[in-house]
Amino acid sequence: MTRYYFFFLLFLPVITFGQTTVSGEVADSVTGQAMEFVSVKLFTEKDSVLKTGAYTDEKGKFIMDNIPGGNYYIVVGFSGYEDKQISSVKLTGQPVYSIGRVALAPVNLKQIDELVVVGKMEVLSAGIDKKVYNVDQDIVARGAGADEVLNNIPSITLDEEGRVSLRGEGSVTILINGQPSSLTGSGGDLLSSIPASTIERIEVVTNPSAKYDPDGTSGIINIVLKKNKVRGINGQIAATGGIPGHDHKLNAALSFRNDKLNVYGSYAFDYMEGYRNNFGDIERVIGTDSLMNLNQTRYGTDFKRGHMARLGLDWYLSNNSTFGISGNGQISARRRTGDQLNEQFIASESVTNEWVRRSEEPENRKGIDLNAYFNHNFKNELSKFSSSINYSTSDRTEDGYFSQDYRVFGGAITTMNTIYQNQYSASNDGIFTAQADYEQIVPKIKARYEVGIKAILRDEKLNSSSASYDYALQDFVTDTFATYDYKYNENVYSAYGTFGQELGKLKYQAGLRGEYVLQDPRLLSENKTYTKEYAQLYPSAHVRYATGERSEISFGYSRRINRPNSRDLNPFTNYSDPFNLRTGNPDLKPEFIHSFDLGYTQTFKSMSLTGSVYYRHTTDVIQRVKIFYDDNTAAVTMANIDVSQTVGGELIFQFRPLPWWRNTISFNGNYIDYQNASTASDNWNNSGFNWGVKYNGSIDFWKKTATFQVNATYNAPRVTAQGIIYLWNFVDIAVQKQFFGKKFSVGVKLADVFNTKGFKMRIDQPTLRQYSDFDFQTRRVYLTLTYNFGKMEFSQKQLPKDTEGGGGDF
Q1: Bridge partners for 419 per DSSP
Q2: What is this structure's pTM?
Q3: Least-confidence region, from 422-436, 621-635, 749-763
Q4: Which domains does the chain have, with CATH numbers?
Q5: Is the Cα torsion angle 616, 617, 621, 623 positive or negative in sign?
């Protein structure tokens, strides 16, 4: 079948002739990460006259063309890093002269002979179209999961189900090491089981080029897991304990690297017990004057336990070629229980029905990601080929045990029999991804082009059954309305091409991606098919202009898509709360987005400012809505709204008034307008201004062996198509002290200092009003102990060229 074919492309490098072209690339000496917008200047060796200069691109590469023969030296510089000089650059008319890879060290790195003692990096590196969050530098993240780490990043928020929003939009593509993964799931319960200690960095791209998948209204979030970058045998052991209740984590990592091999592995265990409460009030107008009120109060527990392991190997076949394999495995269990008191009023506002519903919902998950890659830098260092294959699969089982006792029915005390109901579901998800990319630099015209192909194949299966106890039969009887067999297949085949060029201070890039998509949801138990098939083109364009030595303005455009996922399409109805059902919508259409972004960045000696203004126009907007039925029940589902328009701005200000005091303040605000021509009975037209601000500040003391840090987040009420939601607002503080040459550290954190981290929702419609309040155990004190062993410094000796895969760099 077509969906299992492998695709190959044959690329011929472009051969150019002319005067000498000087090329190279620049990276951070600590992380090995490519550095963008680094100043590279070429001086004549005789009289130190500036001959020409260039800035590195998003991959850290630069080219300086048409250089006459002679003796020169090069100075590479960037704010916050030590300048580096490359002497004795002798040009003799050769077509290409490469200075190779230049590693810049942060200003607080101290060189000792062959070793470099690692100092501190910035928690956040903010560029015009990309933010890089260095998790290791955030001591508040110690002992947290990936979901909590995301909450610390500017413009990212999560709701009560762990759904991630970026710049106020809920459609975000989440990748692990640059690839789709079943481990990210469709909510935060899986993200929470990825320990922060296993994450190296998180990359956020708000307006990606055509090289990347167009999925996601607001952009891409790439979670990059740790991989060893230092020689010898190295390791880390960390343990975290949190009280009150229990929130404990244990992490261990071990790695070995030499000139030919890099072997790494890690293991993480987490255990959590807490509470999970929610309170709701529904008021609905029925007919012309009849009124129904439903008050619900639920107190419950939440238990989670998980194991995660990673093992990988990089094999440096040569100085230019690398082959690698890696695997991530995860096993987790969760159990939620709760007692919910329901009080229903009708018209007269007297109690007519009162009942208690008890629930126990255990679930188990296991999953694995497997990856293989091959990368090759050609000898002329002007072209690169990369390829990868990734397979991700996960299994999940969920049970539900419910009982319901009526105390008052029809306004009178009753002795009705207890209602018993059981639910069971089993699901399997599989994602296969294969891709190949080729990039070529054309020095003569200071240009670069990239081409590639990709295939993403998804298979998901879900079987569910429900049964209620029949007192006459003295047995459980299958509920046919809640028993089903569901299957979902999605195939995405794509190819892209981009072309970019540097014209003095101006850089531009244009690209086009083509996709063919087949979505095939099937409700097998009812012999229903909801197949969708379409082909689309996704153009992108980016322009950058250097207004000064350390300032730049940019404009970006991309067409994007948000495809409804399996969970959103699944027509199964969850009856754990009969008055608040949850179901998918198999008739959902994908939403299409035109995204525009105008940005500016300015870097000074001790501060930087990054700002952007953006506009998004979306059709067939996918929104979570609540629908009410005539029998007083309601269902949360997904629906398409005709159009939404968003105009917003983002500002990130980083400043260090003193060498030991770092601060980052970010703001994001936007005005959104939802427009829907017709609905069944309610008004889904809404508009309003949404905004939020975040602060991250740290102070180093005790001879820079101790750090105090504060993270604070405030999100103003956010407008939805039906009402308003109130997102997380919280303050976290932490302190860490290092001992024994920074090999051992002790950290203490107080999470959610003012106990304000919760989620609220309000729906205001002509015939109904609902208020919901979700409350979790979030305020805890954490103690973290960390021990590092081995040679934890970077060697100045040249390692094989960085052609590693699986990092998912953007």
Answers
A1: 404
A2: 0.79
A3: 621-635
A4: 2-107 (2.60.40.1120), 124-795 (2.40.170.20)
A5: positive
| Cα separations in angstroms, 433 against 24, 202, 371, 389, 453 | 31, 21, 9, 6, 11
CA distance 705 to 746: 11
Smallest CA-to-CA distance from 563 within 627, 495, 498, 494 is with: 494
Q: Which residue has the higher pLDDT, 19 or 134?
A: 134
Name the residue among 98, 72, 102, 67 with its Cα closest to residue 87.
Answer: 72
Sheet holding 96-104, edge to edge: 61-67, 20-28, 96-104
Backbone torsions φ then ψ of 444, nearest 5 degrees: -60, -35
Listed residue (137, 338, 151) closest to 778, CA to CA = 151
Beta bridge partners of 116: 111, 794
Distances (CA, A) of 224 to 128, 174, 177, 239, 575: 20, 11, 5, 22, 37
User: How many residues are given for the chain?
Assistant: 810
Q: pLDDT digit string (tens) for 49-107?
A: 777 888 787 778 888 877 888 888 898 987 667 788 888 888 887 778 888 888 887 75
Residues 6+ apart with CB under 8 A from 730: 712, 713, 751, 752, 753, 754, 756, 757, 778
Chain center to CA of 64:
36
For every residue of 564-577, DSSP letters joined together read --HHHH---EE-SS
Asked if 69 and 91 count as a contact pair (C-beta separation under 8 A), the reply is yes
Residue 516 CA to residue 505 CA, distance in Å, equals 37
Give CA–CA dist 567/732, Å, rounded: 33
3-state secondary structure of 406: strand
Beta partners for residue 246, in sequence order: 273
Look up tokens 């200000």; give the residue: 653
State the DSSP code for 147: H
